[in-house]
Amino acid sequence: MTLASRYAGKTVLAVGAHADDVELAVGGTIAKMRRAGARVVMVVVSLPGDYALRSREAERAAAILGCELRVLMGDGARRIEDLKSYELVAMIDREVRELGPAAMLTHGATEIHRDHVLVHEACVSSQRLQPFDFFTYHPNFCRPVPVPFHPRAYVDITETMETKMRAIEAHQSQFKCRGIGIDVYRDIARLNGRMVGVQYAEGLDVSRMLLA
Ligand SMILES: [Zn+2]
């Protein structure tokens, strides 16, 4: 059974601290899951900066990937770090209770961005509500920084690589406007692909997975 068909007819939550985090790390994986018939909900905790603009970009990226989008924190001055940890856990819990996911993909514990770590910890807590497969994804950064991450599973995203790149390009304010190239994400996918003998892959760390 492929990872994509494993979740056909089921719901997958892809959780990121900010708009673009999910696309960068697992855009190819969730596009593939969606094509295989999974309901994929991209849960974005906050949209710092120009809320309206980033919201439009996130909507466009989600549409390109064929996934649903939910933004948990509305337009306001607060950032994730301003939330109490129980408030953030309650936000993630609400999504898990409503959607009953078969899998969750989110940030890992080793990221340099504090907001990413906070979201990781809240997602870890949400596992107490019900069993679901729990994966963490490659650390995100605009400019490469050495951060420990050890993939234990790889998803062949050769068929959705270009879709992933288009979804990343939708976040114009994060890349094009700041003069940051997005080729690094193709490089990472190519390197991960080499590890498993396919053209492009995304790496996942596996925290919990039921083999039935
Ligand atoms: Zn982020």
Protein described:
With 212 residues, this protein is an alpha/beta fold. The protein has 7 helices and 7 strands. It has helices at 3-6, 21-35, 51-65, 85-99, 114-126, 161-169, 183-196, and strands at 11-18, 39-46, 68-71, 103-106, 133-137, 153-156, 201-208. The chain has a 7-stranded mixed beta sheet, with helices on both faces. Helix 2 links the parallel strand 1 and strand 2 (39-46). The radius of gyration is 16 Å and the shape is globular. The relative contact order is 0.18. Residues 17-18, 21, 113, 116, 140 line the site of zinc ion.
Total beta strand runs = 7
The percent of residues in helical segments reads 40-55%
Strand content: 15-25%
Give the N-terminus to C-terminus distance in angstroms.
11 Å
Strand order of the largest sheet: 3-2-1-4-5-7-6
- Approximate shape: globular
Bound molecules: zinc ion
Q: Structural class of the helix and strand makeup?
A: alpha/beta
Biggest sheet statistics? 7 strands, mixed
| Structure annotation, total helices | 7
Low-confidence stretches: none
Question: In angstroms, what is the radius of gyration?
Answer: 16 Å
Task: Give me the strand/helix succession.
Answer: HEHEHEHEHEEHHE
Estimate the mean pLDDT confidence: 94
Write the layout of secondary structure elements.
Blueprint (H helix, E strand, L loop, with lengths): L2 H4 L4 E8 L2 H15 L3 E8 L4 H15 L2 E4 L13 H15 L3 E4 L7 H13 L6 E5 L15 E4 L4 H9 L13 H14 L4 E8 L4
Parallel strand pairs: 1-2, 1-4, 2-3, 4-5
Antiparallel strand pairs: 5-7, 6-7
Bound molecules: zinc ion (ZN).
Zinc ion binds next to strand 1.
